[in-house]
Every structure is written in C-alpha cells, then in structure tokens.
Amino acid sequence: MKFEDYKRRGSCRSFRKPNEWMRAAVKIIICIVFGFSIGVSFRDISPPKLKLVPSIDTYIGDKNSGRSTQTILNVKSVSRDNVSTKAQKLGDQSQIFVSTNPRGAERLPPAIIASESDLYPRRLYGRPSEDLTFKPKYLVTFTVGYDQKDNIDQAVKKFSDNFTILLFHYDGRTNEWNEFEWSKRAIHISVPKQAKWWYAKRFLHPDIVAPYDFIFIWDEDLGVENFDAEEYIKLVKKYKLEISQPGLDLKSEGLTWDMTQRQEELEVHKKVKGNPGWCTYPHLPPCAAFVEIMAPVFSKEAWRCVWYLIQNDLVHGWGLDFALQKCVEPAYERIGVVDAQWIVHQGVPSLGNQGNGDDGETRWKGVRKRSQNEWKMFHDRLFKAEEDYYKSLGIENTVPEANWVNMDKNK
User: Fold this and answer.
1) How far apart are alpha carbons 327 and 329 in whole angstroms?
2) Last-in-domain residue among 334, 349, 364
3) Average pLDDT over residues 135-141
4) Which pTM was predicted?
5) Number of structural domains, the chain?
6) Per-residue pLDDT tens over the stretch 82-130
7) Whose CA is closest to 399, among 386, 382, 381, 384?
8) pLDDT, tens digit, for every residue of 260-290?
9) Which UniProt keywords apply (predicted)?
10) Could you tell me if 83 and 179 lie in one domain?
11) How many Å apart are CA 225 and CA 231, to the nearest integer?
C-alpha cells in the first residue's frame, strides 16, 4: 500500500513537470513579443525639433555672426509645442513647421530667419562682418524735385554723419544730384509723380528702418537756418517725445494751427490754448497731441504704429496729423513741438505741378482737390473702424476724436 501510494505520487510529479515547462515557455514567448513591439515603437518616435536648431550658446558666443537679438530669441522660443499639428498628423516630423515663425516662414528653422533689414549700403567683396565701419543712428528722408536742389543742399548740411540721407525723387531726375558730394553717399529712390506718404508706405516699413532710433520724414520746402539736427535730437530725448516737429517760424507760409507755431521763450511745448471754442478737450488735437505732416519726426516705436495707420491708396496724408495721437500714450505728453530748433515753411507748391486738373483746372488745384477728398476719406475710414471695433465688444465709443471733429458736428 505504501509502495502504491509512492508510485502514485511519483507518477503525479512526472506529469506535473512538463506542464510547468510549458507555462514558462509561453511566458518567455509573450515577453519577447512584447519587448519587440516596444522596440519597434521607439524606433518610429522622432526626437524633439530642437535637434534641428544649433545651440543658442553658439550664437551668443559668436559676436561677429551678425545675428540680431531677435534671431536669438527665435531660437530660444522653439519647442515641440511650436510644431504644427498638421505636420504631426502627417506623421513626418522630419519636416520643419514652426507656427510661431513669421507668416509664410513656418517651414524655416527659426535660427535662419532675418525678420529685420536696414538701409546700410554694403560692399560687393570682402567679409560681410567688415562691411560697416559705422552705422548711422537716425534717418532723414526728403521727397524732392530737382528744382529745389539748393534748398535740399542747405537742409542736408544740417544733418550730421549720424544720419542716413534718403531722397525720394518725384520728377525722375537723380543723376543731376551728383554735383553735391553728400549725394554720392545718399540713397536715391525714383518713382515719378508720387507724394511722400506713397513712398513712406512702400519703402519705410518698420522692419526696414528698425536700426534707426528716429525717422525724419520731411518736405522739400523747409528753411533750416535756425535748425541743428543733433541739438534737436537732444531735446526730443530730454522731453521724451515720441512724435514731434520743429516749431514753425511766424514768417512761414500758410500757418494754420497755433499748436505748431514756435513759442519763442520755450524749448518745447506740448499744448496751446487755441482760438476761442477750439479747445473744448485740451488734451486733444489740434490743441495738444498734434504735429503737422510737413516735417514730422518719429521714434522707431511710434513709427511702427504710424506706418500701419497710413492708407495704401491715400497718398497725400491729409488728416493723418489728427490721428497720430492714437500711436502713443499718453499722447499729450509724448507728442510735442520743439521751439528751440525751428524752421520756416516756404510753401512752395512744387508737387502741385506734377498733377493734372479736372475740367480745365490748373494742375495744383487738381492736387489740392485730391488732398481734401483724401482727408474726408481717411476720417470716415478711421471713424468706421473704431465704431465697428467697439460694437464688436458690445460697448459704445464715448471717447471724443479731436476738437475739430466735435466742433464740426455742432455746426
């Protein structure tokens, strides 16, 4: 009986061992298959996009690379979150797509993007890093015809080497200006029969003039005997003016606004009392926050806003002076007239000779009629744009535009 029991137990053990081996073998096979699956998955996963961009330290260490601070920030901002979900869905992460890049440049690695430019002429030879031995800090532009060459010659001499000189030629005559030595280093842009705001909109984009701290956009008929550009800049900085103009001497032609007339005993003024009934709102144009469009000066920050305010099809800029207040805050503190450096507006209607009159009108009358029409068109567009904006928020616009608008409505 004991032998039978022993035999029976032994038989059971002999049958149990193959079952255990089978279970172990199955477990091993399952582990191998599972591990293989994970390995294949890791092979298909791409590393982060950061591998496409060199280390930011590379650029910081390369002082002669010519890359701007903005380029460095572009590199720093890259992350997997920037990668387009569209690219992710396609499953091809080897394709660059950075949604925070400038529009149209999403497929470029941020480190290569040059979002700004300049007006500095460069050589056709040598090392690019050695092209510029000196970079002017300011820009002055004149819209000119050759008939005013002597006046422009006197004006340019009031601006130091710290200024890039840019001439917009509305009469197509450029080579004749080479009689002046300074003209050989100036930049000349020639498009016949255009006004200065047409040129400004097309050639002075904020990303092009970004290297300049201040931009002067001047007419050709200005007397500058009592003006010095460097001293002017000092006063603008002293009084923290973002938008300004020199005071107009009382000898000037066509004086219209009290605000832009020179106050003899002041360095700078930012407001005036104005004619009776004109200044119901003392902090609004034309009693404050106001300069004219004949000789404005903009900080590069203010110009970035003003450029967008200029309408593509309204070339004369009439009405723009009343809207400049929208580009700085508080406007009545950041817009002013520099009295200690003043000019004379000569009122030469040279651009008027480039126009054509309607129904037998003289040329200058046709130009003036267009200017006046543009003023109304600009005002209507701005008014509607603001009304639409406030309506979209469900609120009423109760902010007065300017003294002249309110006075006109009360007539």
Assistant:
1) 7
2) 349
3) 98
4) 0.76
5) 2
6) 544 454 444 577 899 999 999 999 999 999 999 999 999 999 999 999 9
7) 386
8) 999 999 999 999 997 777 888 999 999 999 9
9) Membrane, Transmembrane, Transmembrane helix
10) no
11) 14
Could you say which DSSP state residue 53 is in?
S
**What is the rounded distance in angstroms from the CA atom of residue 249 to the CA atom of residue 347?**
13
For residue 411, is it within any domain? no
Report residue 21's pLDDT band, with 50, 70 and 90 as the boundaries: low
Cβ burial, residue 167 (10 Å; 0-12/13-18/19+): buried
* Residue 402 domain flag: no
CB 352 within 8 Å of CB 344:
no
Q: Which amino acid is at 354?
A: Q
d(CA 176, CA 183): 10
User: Do 98 and 163 belong to one domain?
Assistant: no
Same domain (yes/no): 324, 268: yes
CA pair distance 73, 53, nearest whole angstrom = 12
Residues 140, 218: contact at Cβ < 8 Å? Answer: yes
Residue 195 identity: A
Residue type, 285: P
- Which pLDDT band, with edges at 50, 70 and 90, does 254 fall under? confident
Nearest to 139 by CA among 170, 104, 110, 164: 164
Residues 237 and 198 in one domain: yes
Amino acid (1-letter code) at residue 68: S
Q: Please identify which residue in the block is written with the tokens 């200005």.
A: 222
Give backbone dihedrals phi and psi of 189, rounded to 5 degrees, phi first.
Answer: -125, 125
pLDDT at 353: 62
301 and 183 together in one domain: yes
Can you give the residue range of the structural domain that contains 69?
49-112
